[in-house]
Amino acid sequence: KQEVTQIPAALSVPEGENLVLNCSFTDSAIYNLQWFRQDPGKGLTSLLLIQSSQREQTSGRLNASLDKSSGRSTLYIAASQPGDSATYLCAVRRQGGSEKLVFGKGMKLTVNP
Amino acid sequence: GAGVSQSPSNKVTEKGKDVELRCDPISGHTALYWYRQSLGQGLEFLIYFQGNSAPDKSGLPSDRFSAERTGGSVSTLTIQRTQQEDSAVYLCASSMTSGSGADTQYFGPGTRLTVL
């Protein structure tokens, strides 16, 4: 059974820091991995999707990497801003079978001005 | 519309009542998913539709939960005889199914269900 872990559960940093958010998964037979952002009381916003054949994806100040063999992904946020404060979730879709996503419990990020 | 929409946004009901939650996916998306987000459990998969068929219902927690999708578009999640442990945010998502591995799931704002 696929399990996705995000540690730490919460992080508080001053504005301007470069951040690394970690995600690990137990079954390396994945189809893709997605990083999402969730603001309080809102749904999920997709940030980046990395296909199993890819090593990384970039969007603006965000860069996500994937190491399937070690079961890890990182989300790098450059020059963090207060507007980046949110909960960040990673989710994996396994190879074959259902298209469902298995989510980590998320990491709550607070960027202080 | 431009995104996934869900209604109602909030629902308060009494224990034992039935509730229906609605999801309108992005136009043209063939795949539709229901997830549940609760404080202790995080985000959990409930059911997945491809067109009007549900090839994966493995996440439905009991036979009180059912879902249908009609016309390859709107979906309804029904919870019968609601219990307090059903209180959660119910999220719907949709995606294209291109088979390329690049099928981003787009989420709606959710329905917050409170069972008194």
Topology record:
The complex is a heterodimer of chains A (113) and B (116).
Chain A: E1 4-5, E2 10-14, E3 19-25, E4 30-38, E5 44-51, E6 56-59, E7 62-67, E8 72-77, E9 86-94, E10 102-103, E11 107-112
Parallel strand pairs in A: 2-11
Antiparallel strand pairs in A: 1-3, 3-8, 4-5, 4-9, 6-7, 7-8, 9-10, 9-11
Chain B: E1 5-7, E2 10-13, E3 19-24, E4 31-38, E5 42-50, E6 53-56, E7 65-69, E8 75-79, E9 88-95, E10 106-107, E11 111-115
Parallel strand pairs in B: 2-11
Antiparallel strand pairs in B: 1-3, 3-8, 4-5, 4-9, 5-6, 7-8, 9-10, 9-11
Tell me the fraction of residues in β-strands of chain B, as a range.
over 45%
Please state the overall shape of chain B, judged from the principal axes of the Cα atoms: globular
Task: Tell me the fraction of residues in β-strands of chain A, as a range.
Answer: over 45%
Secondary-structure-based class of chain B equals: mainly beta
- Oligomerization state: heterodimer
Number-wise, the strands of chain A total: 11
Main sheet overview of chain B: 7 strands, mixed
Rg from Cα of chain B: 14 Å
> What's the number of extended β-strand segments of chain B?
11
Mind describing the biggest β-sheet of chain A? 6 strands, mixed
**Overall form of chain A:** globular
Straight-line distance between termini of chain B: 33 Å
Topology of chain B as a string of helices (H) and strands (E): EEEEEEEEEEE
- Count the helices of chain A. How many? 0
The helix/strand class of chain A is: mainly beta
Secondary structure: helix percent of chain A:
under 10%
Average pLDDT for all residues of chain A: 94
Biggest interface between chains: A-B, 25 and 29 residues
Low confidence ranges of chain A: none
Q: What is the CA–CA distance across the termini of chain A?
A: 41 Å
User: On the 0-100 scale, what is the average pLDDT of chain B?
Assistant: 92
